[in-house]
Amino acid sequence: MDSLTHIVLGGCLGHLALGKKAGRKAVVWGAIADTIPDLDVFAGFWVHPVDSLLIHRGFTHSILFAILCSIFGGWGLSQWYKKYEIPWKDWSLVMALGLSSHLFIDSLTNYGTGLLEPFSNIRFAYTTIFIADPAFTLPMLMAFVVLLRKKPSIDTKTTWAKYAIVISSIYLVWTFINRSHFETLFKNQFQVQKLSISDQSLTPGPLNNVLWSTMARSDSGYYSGYHSLLGKDPNVKFTFIPANDQLSEGFGSQEEYLKLKRFAKGYSCISLMDGTPYFHDLRFGTSTGWTDQLGRFTFSYPLERQAGDTAHLIKVNPWPQGGFEAMGALWQKIKGN
């Protein structure tokens, strides 16, 4: 999820765990704890861009890291704030809630998390929510602002934090229900349209949980489609994306290419752009997939046959091309038009 969501979620949980004893310090350290796992993004400054993909949400998003950081972080805070005589176990609880909630929420996005690292590089992802969802974040953001103020009583602050967590949790449950609904809907549509698929992934649309998309694997490529909860027509228009496996000739044994394949978890294709083959991770869709045009793939990497730097990340803006026009098309798609 986005950093703001992690900050406000950790702050609310920190207050509920230790707010009555530590006041706003519990809020601040809860927010910090919920942000710590994402510090792995700085690894991108020193390693190959393909390696940075695997490092992000890797060990810092593991259960082992959360346990170690909770124990030592809690002890460190108990020493720092020794005059308050708050046991290290209480501070460890603040750290644990922040870290574990970060791992849990990120596991519900399509990037996934390496919960079992360093013992296994499997990424756990059960996608139910977009990486930034205002409806999920807003209740906790409102409570977070209250928690940082001096005037409200501790009981008032606790009430705000409780309601925020409850409301956001209910919304999160709703995202699971939506996923189940769209999984069934898309499967039925593939059967009705007599399209043979072997597997499918699902992802909610940008900044909402009403519009969903699917990327389904077939023998020679993938089918991409969108549908909204508000749509009256159950039929889905699927777009076929060829896998173009023949374009991967010469890359199959290259380390960076194999890492990209592993990261994509079986959802990838290759296309030619100005004569250069590009590897696309299809799980993240395209920048304007909800319009009539397929648009540019969000995660794309050029493949070079020279020795050395065989693949590197092309920075493609994940937000819609076309500015307000594309956002307008997104809004129309959400409304079911």
Write the layout of secondary structure elements.
Elements lengths: L2 H20 L1 H12 L13 H7 L7 H18 L7 H19 L27 H14 L6 H39 L6 E6 L6 E7 L3 E8 L10 E4 L12 H10 L3 E6 L2 E11 L10 E6 L21 H11 L3
Antiparallel strand pairs: 1-2, 2-3, 3-4, 5-6, 6-7
Helix pairs in contact: 1-2, 1-5, 1-6, 1-7, 2-5, 3-8, 4-5, 6-7
Major pleated sheet: 4 strands, antiparallel
Mean pLDDT: 89
Q: Structural class, please?
A: alpha+beta
Figure out the total of helices. 9
Number of strands: 7
Radius of gyration: 22 Å
Strand content: 5-15%
Task: Report the principal-axis shape.
Answer: globular
Number of domains: 2
Task: List the secondary-structure elements in sequence, H or E.
Answer: HHHHHHHEEEEHEEEH
* Largest sheet, spatial ordering of strands: 1-2-3-4
In which range does the helix fraction lie?
A: 40-55%
Distance between the termini: 28 Å
Low-confidence stretches: 315-320
Structural summary, described in words:
This protein has 337 residues and is of the alpha+beta class. The protein has 2 domains: 172 residues, no CATH class; 141 residues, no CATH class. Helices cover 45% and strands 14% of the residues. The protein contains 9 helices and 7 strands. The protein has a 4-stranded antiparallel beta sheet with strand order 1-2-3-4, with helices on one face. The longest helix has 39 residues. The chain is globular, with a radius of gyration of 22 Å.
